[in-house]
Amino acid sequence: MKYFFLALFLGFSVMALSQNKISGIITDSDKLPLAGVSIYAPAIQASTTSDANGFYSFSRIPSGKISFIFSYVGFTTLQRDFQVSEDGIQADIILQEDVHLMDEVIISTAFNKLQSQNVMKVEHESIKSLQQKGITTLIEGLTTIPGVSQISTGASIGKPVIRGLSSNRVLVYSQGVRLENQQFGDEHGLGLNDSGIESVEVIKGPASLLYGSDALGGVLYFIPEKFANANTIKADVDQKYYSNTEGTSTSVGVKGSTDKWKFLGRGSYSAHSDYEIPGGDKVTNTRYNELDLKGGIGYNTQSVSSIFRYNFNRLDLGMTEDGIAEQSNSKKTEFPRQAVDNHIMSLHNKIFFKNSSLDADFGYIMNFRQEFEDSPEAALDMHLRTFNYDLKYNFPKTTKIELIAGIQGMHQQNENFGEESLIPNATINDFGVFGTANYEWGKSAVQAGLRYDHRNLSSEANGISGEEGSFEALDLDFDSFNASLGYKTDLTKELLLRLNLASGFRAPNLAELTSNGVHEGTNRYEIGDSNLDKEQNFQVDLNLEYTSEHFEFFANAFYNYIDNYIYAAPSAAMIEDYVIFNYTQDNARLYGGEVGFHFHPHPLDWLHIETSFETVTAKKEGGDYLPLIPANTWSNTIRTEFGIKEWLSSGYARVNSTSTFAQTNTDLNETTSTAYTLINAGFGGKIKMANNSFDFSVSANNIFDKEYISHLSRLKVDEIPNIGRSIIVGLKFAI
Description:
Elements: H1 2-13, E1 21-27, E2 38-41, E3 46-49, E4 55-59, E5 64-71, E6 78-84, E7 89-90, E8 93-94, E9 122-126, H2 127-131, H3 138-142, E10 148-153, E11 157-162, E12 165-166, E13 170-174, E14 177-178, E15 197-204, H4 208-211, E16 218-224, E17 232-242, E18 247-257, E19 261-272, E20 288-300, E21 304-318, E22 337-352, E23 357-372, E24 380-394, E25 401-416, E26 426-441, E27 444-459, E28 474-490, E29 495-506, H5 510-514, E30 516-519, E31 524-527, E32 535-547, E33 551-575, E34 578-599, E35 607-620, E36 633-644, E37 648-660, E38 676-689, E39 692-701, E40 726-734
Parallel strand pairs: 1-7, 1-8, 13-16, 31-34
Antiparallel strand pairs: 1-4, 2-3, 2-5, 5-6, 9-15, 10-11, 11-12, 13-14, 15-16, 17-18, 17-40, 18-19, 19-20, 20-21, 21-22, 22-23, 23-24, 24-25, 25-26, 26-27, 27-28, 28-29, 29-32, 30-31, 32-33, 33-34, 34-35, 35-36, 36-37, 37-38, 38-39, 39-40
């Protein structure tokens, strides 16, 4: 942890006063002022809005070239770069009308461009839009994004799956730093709460160029809540009720900003009983409780913008053993149970030079995971501490070329304090160096990059060699070179084409290298192999997007070839009553994609008809299918937007039908699953009463209480259905 506080000290110690200013008037094409336009500077995470006269201003911002985003509903989002100096600049803006969805700035890629300008296709979804779909957990909301699924254990634990790849093949970023929380485990969830998160970006495909090992399958990049506009203070209370689990969730937040300082704080607590299946029975001990605290502070100077954020998340999770047994409405977890504490500390510094800049991100993550079998003494007690750093230099930008070079690294320590050990005490050190360039001409752009990574993994010996739970000492090195090449062009005014080729890699994790014992979560005896090689893949992505005034269409196709894919294969031998599974490797290929459209007919611009279909096929080189591959899914939504006089604004209503097809392309040791269709609905908006207003929402998922079992449910082997009808009511007040 000393490394993180050293980085924190260096970040804040270089601060000095600044008087830099940018201001202007925002108008439409008829020169009429626009009030309420959102202006955001991603580099310094500062925002404001235009007043009734269209006027906006920023004070005390760093010198150098700063990018500003101007967005307003019904108008084309505009991204402009300004050379800010102490003399201040006047920057008047004209926005063009556009009925299309607002363009978003993509943060997870190197050059932070608008989605329409980005060479790589990245899915962007606001957390507010996910919450309007009636989600119970954050991972549940992610599954509504085409190409994203989850491996679930009841209603509380979900592991993200991107195009058939999961676990250590999907990297999660929060607060701009890599999240490490023993994600290899089957019963280990995402470990994040949706409270205090602004949006999520999903990279579907290898992203090792920017993120190194474990981004072989893709990246989930969570963008935290923005600070308040300059010279304002805001506070809110958000309350939700969940009928199925008789659960409640409360979130309270406050944030404020001056010209120099900005801060925010948010706390939330939720408690849920066992989830109910169709017919009225509850699945015993699937209850859970969650406490989440988030805070942040930032300060800008003439040369540096520094932002420190902290997130504490505590999960108390019940683990069902008997399935549908004793019925209870209690929210107190019983044995067996998990207790997980997660601390995320991040420091982002952006140092501005005359025509270039340096991003210096530091993170420190502490993950304490305990499992209690039948007593208050933890049988499993794992402490994972991770320090990571990410330094990127942004070279001076020319008219057509942008260039970035950087280094990244990670120092990680795993220690065991319980009676049992799933993995040994170990230390991992990563180092990577990369460069990437973006070249634009006319309506086209090319982006390319190269990267080298090295990982050293050393672990301690434990136990008596040959006996269950013993580990041999390891000292292993893994190296990988990776590259990416992408091309984007506007074929016509309405039609956009993207083609991306990229390689990625993943070093084997500790469980795959060292396992030697019964894995209670899978009821099998697992044996690792210290001779496993790294996984290396190559993927081709093709994206077509058509956008006209009232119709939008997209089609994504991918082919992913993986050398040395690691998986656990059963043997004919048994130890006691457990089948022995050995970790082994085979080449694999995955292919498929997503297709969909959005229709909002004129003059019924308030009506939106949306549909999407997603599919993935995954096979080993010998022809057998890979396990835990999501079934094909077809989703259809009818959505309306409306207002009623002055008392209801931002109103919406939606009806959704999601059809999941039967999954018969299964691994030899995996059961098939049947098809099912779920009907969901919801409505909400902002109600104004006198001088007060509040947001409300009502959602109903699985309206007809359909009994089904998801193919990726870990309770499928026990024939335990997924959650039944769930009604969620939410209220949010500004205070």
